[in-house]
């Protein structure tokens, strides 16, 4: 497995990865219909394509040469001092194999001016909260919400 920059030819596989991962993670929280709605909006081809050219960002995939097993997208703000991790997902069958760690470490290298990495995590996604805690993140805010039915915790780690 290696980490590389995502390209146009990867978008369909990334979209499938996101749908599979979201259903495995969030069906029990929101229900399959709501997950379909969210993934249809947030992970549309147009939305993914826009990430390829987003300024001050990195769009990465974990690839074994045959299939994409993970993806991550992050963007720098605040004159590059803060990096916001927008997405880090690994296919359910590939989780706990070090792929998320590889993606996270590569992102840390992509933004040499950054001093802090921030991520927003669904509060009920205990596995994700645990993953980020094990990688040096701590909860800085637990009251933010992206949408009325999505409860978020904000986590940060110094770089």
Automatic annotation (TrEMBL):
It comes from the Bacteria. GO terms for molecular function: acyltransferase activity, transferring groups other than amino-acyl groups. Keywords: Acyltransferase, Ribonucleoprotein, Ribosomal protein, Transferase. Residues 1-159 form the N-acetyltransferase domain. SUPFAM superfamilies: Acyl-CoA N-acyltransferases (Nat). InterPro entries: Acyl_CoA_acyltransferase (IPR016181), Bact_Acetyltransf (IPR050832), GNAT_dom (IPR000182). The keyword Iron-sulfur does not apply. GO terms for cellular component: ribosome. Transmembrane segments: none annotated. This is GCN5 family acetyltransferase. It comes from Aquamicrobium defluvii.
């Amino acid at each position: 497995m290696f980490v590389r920059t995502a390209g146009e030819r990867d978008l369909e596989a990334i979209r499938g990865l996101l749908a599979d991962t979201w259903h495995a993670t969030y069906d029990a929280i929101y229900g399959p219909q709501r997950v379909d709605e969210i993934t249809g909006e947030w992970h549309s081809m147009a939305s993914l394509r826009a990430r390829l050219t987003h300024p001050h960002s990195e769009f990465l995939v974990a690839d074994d040469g045959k299939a994409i097993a993970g993806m991550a997208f992050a963007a720098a703000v605040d004159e590059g001092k803060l990096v916001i991790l927008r997405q880090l997902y690994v296919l359910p069958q590939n989780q706990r194999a070090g792929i998320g760690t590889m993606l996270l470490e590569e992102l840390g290298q992509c933004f040499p001016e950054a001093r802090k990495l921030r991520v927003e995590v669904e509060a009920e996604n205990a596995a994700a909260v645990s993953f980020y805690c094990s990688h040096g993140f701590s909860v800085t805010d637990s009251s933010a919400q992206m949408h009325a039915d999505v409860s978020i915790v904000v986590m940060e780690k110094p770089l």
